[in-house]
Amino acid sequence: AEKSLNSLLEEGDDPNTSRAPPQVVYAQLKYMWATGSQREALSHLIDFTSRMSHDLGLNPDDLITQPLPTHTTIKNVQEYTRLLARCFLKQGEWQVALQPNWRTENSETILGSYLLATHFDSKWYKAWHNWALANFEVISLLTSKSAINQNDENENAYTQELIQQHVVPAIRGFFHSISLSESNPLQDTLRLLTLW
């Protein structure tokens, strides 16, 4: 795999300086992750995703509140936006893998990566599933902490902020993932019912 990837990369091993097609760079980053260079792969993936978004004239921060712009001058925009969805999903997955306490320390960054994956490919089951599941996991952690601290008057498992930030997005995400699922969406359905 390494030999094949290196033959496709024009400028060497560094994904940041390569002029190879984006799909090849993405494959190289996944190979780096699989061979034990997880932190380096994540760092390069974040840079690569940012560069590719910029090259397409997209600002990921704006996409949270605005739809994707329509482009007529860039070839293969649809293909690249689908690749961006995969990149953002991998960013989220890799950050979760590297940060065991992500639910309390870095949840917004990870949720943002998953949300961008849904924006770049709104018909992709895996993006919606991961985004909904990550919100569900944050809710589960916060409500279990609240249950432990029931004696504290300020602790309310279902505050308005928790509902707006995590419950509503999780419900929407599970509805999308269930509708896009090609197999039996039983787990997502049960999680949805739990939230409801």
Description:
The chain starts with a helix and ends with a helix. The protein is mainly α. α5 (77-98) runs antiparallel to α7 (107-120). It is built from 10 helices and no strands. The protein has helices at residues 2-8, 22-34, 38-55, 60-63, 77-98, 102-105, 107-120, 125-148, 160-180, 186-195.
Structural class from helices and strands? mainly alpha
Please, how many helices? Answer: 10
Mean pLDDT: 82
β-strand amount:
under 5%
> Got a strand count?
0
The low-pLDDT segments are: none
The amount of helix comes to 55-70%
Cα(first) to Cα(last) distance is: 46 Å
Largest sheet: none
Radius of gyration: 19 Å
Structural shape: globular
Question: H/E element string?
Answer: HHHHHHHHHH
The assembly state of the depicted protein chains is single chain
